[in-house]
Amino acid sequence: MSRRGDDPAALAETLRLLHGMGFHRWAGMTAPERAADGSVSVTIKAEGEAVMPFGGLHGGVLTGLYEFPALAALLPELAPDEWAVTADVHARNIGAVRTGDTVTITGRLVKRGRGIAFVEAEARVSDRLVGRASITKAIVPSPDVLKPG
């Protein structure tokens, strides 16, 4: 079975499309970086409309940002005609993100099965853990716009 990861150009184009979504742009998310272990990291700076009036990143913004790097870590394992949609999210924001902090969010594939995948993401400010999410993805047919070629 071929995988999206077998075609680096197509994988890069899919990531470019996803990264360009309005929420990601609004949050100021950096382009994803894939590490040798397959994890994918992005960063944001806690500033602008994402910051609460009394200071600090809104927890809902951070919760929403776990999805992209977690999906990006799974993408290379999907076949070109497969996609993954979120079935369940458990997010825990466990530390404050102060105004001006740079947050790194890293997604990892835990396990990919035939019809379901488990991914996780964690958020850090420097070496300090500020949040973690466990996400279950259902494997579904790929929308035409996301099929390579």
From TrEMBL:
<protein>
    <recommendedName>
        <fullName>Thioesterase domain-containing protein</fullName>
    </recommendedName>
</protein>
<dbReference type="Pfam" id="PF03061">
    <property type="entry name" value="4HBT"/>
</dbReference>
<dbReference type="InterPro" id="IPR029069">
    <property type="entry name" value="HotDog_dom_sf"/>
</dbReference>
<dbReference type="GO" id="GO:0016790">
    <property type="term" value="F:thiolester hydrolase activity"/>
</dbReference>
<dbReference type="InterPro" id="IPR006683">
    <property type="entry name" value="Thioestr_dom"/>
</dbReference>
<feature type="domain" description="Thioesterase">
    <location>
        <begin position="54"/>
        <end position="128"/>
    </location>
</feature>
